[in-house]
Each structure stands twice: as C-alpha cells, then as structure tokens.
Amino acid sequence: MRTMIPAERFLTASLRAAPHGARVTRILSAALEAADPAAAVGRAVSLEGNRMRVASREYKIRKGGRILAVALGKAAAPMADALAKILGGRLSAGLVITKHAPAISPFPIHHSQFTIIEGGHPVPDERSLEAGRRIMEMLSGLTADDLVICLISGGGSALATAPVDGVTLAELQSLTSALLACGAGIDEINTLRRHLDVLKGGGLARLARPARVVSLILSDVVGSPFEAVASGPTAPDPTTCADALAVLEKYHFCSDDFSRPSQKATEVATTSVLDVLKSGTETLKPGDPIFAHVQNLLVGENLLAAQAALKQAEVEGFHPYLLRADLRGEAREAAVDLCRTLRWARQTDQPAHRPACIVVGGETTVTLCQNPGRGGRNTELALAAVTELADFPDVMLVTLATDGEDGTTDAAGAVVTGETYKCARLLGLEPADYLRRNDSYSFFAALDDLLQPGPTGTNVNDLVFLFAF
C-alpha cells in the first residue's frame, strides 16, 4: 500500500525536539493511511465480466448502456483514479471536480475518460458554477440501461453549484461567507445549500433518473449522515424549507461586516433567497421512489482514521484511548475541555495510563472577529490550548485537519506543549492577542509549529491527539 503522507512530513520544531516526536508523526501518518480514498473505493467495488459488485449489491452492465462517473470533493482525484483502474474500458466518461487540479495534487489521474475541473472552496465561484453546469450536461438524456457512479467527499458543496431559479452565484457566495464568519455549523450551512442548489438534497439523483445510481461516500461530517456530505447530492433530505429559514433567523450579522452582531441574517439575505425558502418547494425526502434506484454507501469516515491512529499508538508504546468522535462547538471552548482532560490524564493516569495517546474526532467552528487574521478551526483550537497547558510538564496536543488544510491556509493544524507559552513569550508573542484576532496561523508560523504536510487527497474531518508522557 502506498503511503499517503510520509511521517516526516509532519515534523515541526516541537516534534523535532521531542524524544517521542518520530512516534507521534507515525501515528498521524497512520490515521491518514486509513482514510485513503483510493483504498476505500477498491474495497467497495469489484468487476467480473459484465457484472459489477458494490458491497453486497450486484449491477449488470447492460448492452448499450453507459457507465458514467461523477467524482466530487477534495478526495475526488484518488477516488476516480481507483475506479478507473477497476473498470478500465468499461467506463464511458467521467468528471473529476476537486479543489486542487491534479497538476498540483499528490494524486494525479492518468485516465483519458475523465474531464478534470477545479472548483472554488470554501465559497463557490465561477469555476464551481461551470462544474455544476458540466454535471447537469453529463446527466441529461440518460436511460434505464445507464449506470452513474458518484464518488462523493467533503468539500463538494462548494466545488460544484447550480443555484435554483431566481438565486444567483453572488447571493450564494454572500450567504456562505456570512454563515462561515459567524460560526454556523456545517450542518446548518448545508441545510441552506440543499434548498438553494439544484444538485443538492438528492438533486443529482433526480437529474440522473431513470439511470441507476451508485454513490460511494467518504464522510467529513460528524455522524456521517449522507445528506450532509457535499450537501447530499444523491441522498434524501430530512430537512425542510422551514429549517433553512430557521438557520437564517438563528444567526445575526451585519451586511457590511458579517462578524459584528447587529442585523438578522434575514435582513441581509436577498429577497430572492427568502422567496425560494418561503415558497415551500422542497427537496427530495426519505421514501421518494427515485431512491429505489440509488445505492448510497459509506466507504470511509473519521472514526476509521481515529481507530487506525489508536492502533498505531499502541504499536508505538502508548496506551490508546478514544475519547469521542463527535467533537463540535466553538474551537476555543473545546480546547479548554480537552486540555482539562489532558492535564487529568497526566496527573492521574485516567482515562488512560501513561504514556497515553487520547484521540478525539469531529469538527469545531470559529466565530471570526471584525478583522480576522489567518487561521482555521484546528490552529485556533491549538492556540487556545497554549495558555491552558502553559508550564505543564510532559504533555502535547496536536490538531490535524485530515485534508491537510485548515480553513483557507496551507496548514493542517499545530503542535502545543507545556513549553509553547514560554517559547512564544521569548519571541514577544502573546497568545491571547493572537486568539483575539483569530490569527492562529501567524502565531504558530513564528514558532515553526504548524503542521504542513500539504493536501492529503482525503477528507474525513478533524482529529485532535492528546499525549501524556
């Protein structure tokens, strides 16, 4: 099996200096190895003659029928590459829509059947609009003999878009940016996306009918609900227009400064967006007959990565412990709770004996200040941990975005030890000041403690590692 990200790519100043640093990097590498999208596809799909098997279901490749592939998300390239190797000449055509074009991705595609499109993320852009148009074009005029294989991974919500009639790309961009800035959860953002985008909330499955649809899903969402990954292009949507309106009502932000609470989102959202949501025109719901011809299969998720990390931790001589795989909430608040757990583990050998590796999976959020600096939820969580662990001996906290990118930065996370606060102060850095400005990237860059492995080609949410030595 290939190594997605070699362990040495995770080294930072603190990990180089620590006697256990190499062991920690191997644990991080093992977590990503378990989330290898190509391997996930290989486990799920096989071909024998004119029959394709996907998990327990078998599909006959019908004479005159086509097999089309739509790979959408940050893991689209390796997933598409794996599928093409399995199907070979049986694959008629495909689209790969991803954040990084294979020219700069560590997982290039060498199959002529695919057209490769780079979309915008985390906010959709004109490229995303073109990607959405190309999906709709590919799915037009299909028959019951055709088979559409969708390869869905996180990030797909922004990478391809097809706004419903009456809503513009600019309106989607404004709304997405506003909700991201005010700390809305991804499930809340995707509830809106599903009701404002033709492709989402089962929309792709609707466009593909009467063809059969197989959707292999690599989840980047806590709990892995199908409707949440890439906003559920092939999944029924359990939420309603009323739920989408409730999200707008919940968050307050200003039209010219989305970080200052002064106006309700409904006062910023355009009339056309509100008209769509108030129209009652709904997405496809559970039980809709369209889904009788759709197979949605989970092929990878955060928990698998966490379990692989724990297994490697045991190999490395740590006592492993899975604390939880559903971490949510504000990043800086989560940091306080996690640091409390880490200090307790160091002092009492609970919940795991030292040397301990405690793993946490999930996804936090960040509410941005008025003029934010650079950073993302993983580096923000790490920054909030600096003062919590100040001068506390023999501990380490490591945050990791499994896609290799935290927010809009090129860092996957950061490393914090009991010495981080002291090192920062020697450089004239005050953690509280950087936290106030949401400038976690700059703080850890100055310390050379950013994890920067590069884009990983996978996306199964975030991991936090708590080490008590």
Which architecture of the largest domain per CATH? 3-Layer(aba) Sandwich
Which regions contain 5 or more consecutive residues with pLDDT less than 50? 253-267
As laid out across the biggest beta sheet, the strand order is 6-5-4-7-8-9
CATH superfamily of the largest domain: MOFRL domain
Largest sheet: 6 strands, parallel
Helix content: 25-40%
What percent strand?
15-25%
- CATH fold title of the largest domain: glycerate kinase, domain 1
Total beta strand runs: 15
User: Structural class of the secondary structure composition?
Assistant: alpha/beta
Specify the overall morphology. Answer: globular
In round numbers, the mean pLDDT is 92
From the alpha-carbon coordinates, what is the Rg to the nearest angstrom? 22 Å
Terminal-residue CA separation: 31 Å
Helix segment count?
18
- Domain count: 2
At the first level of CATH, what is the class of the largest domain? Alpha Beta
Task: Describe the protein's architecture and organization.
The structure is a single chain. By secondary structure, this protein is of the alpha/beta class. The protein has two domains: 7-34 and 303-468, MOFRL domain (glycerate kinase, domain 1, 3-Layer(aba) Sandwich); 37-162 and 197-239 and 283-300, Rossmann fold (3-Layer(aba) Sandwich), CATH 3.40.50. 37% of the residues lie in helices and 19% in strands. The protein has 18 helices and 15 strands. The chain has helices spanning 13-17, 21-34, 37-44, 76-87, 126-139, 156-159, 169-181, 186-196, 203-208, 241-250, 265-268, 271-278, 302-315, 331-348, 377-388, 420-426, 431-436, 440-447, and strands at 45-48, 51-54, 57-60, 67-72, 93-98, 114-118, 147-153, 212-218, 294-300, 319-327, 356-362, 395-401, 413-417, 450-451, 462-468. A six-stranded parallel sheet has the order 6-5-4-7-8-9, with helices on both faces. A six-stranded mixed sheet has the order 10-11-15-12-13-14, sandwiched between helices. Strands 1-2-3 form a three-stranded antiparallel sheet. A hairpin with a 2-residue loop joins strand 1 (45-48) and strand 2. Helix 10 crosses helix 12 (271-278). It is globular. The two termini are 31 Å apart. Mean pLDDT is 92; it is low at 253-267.
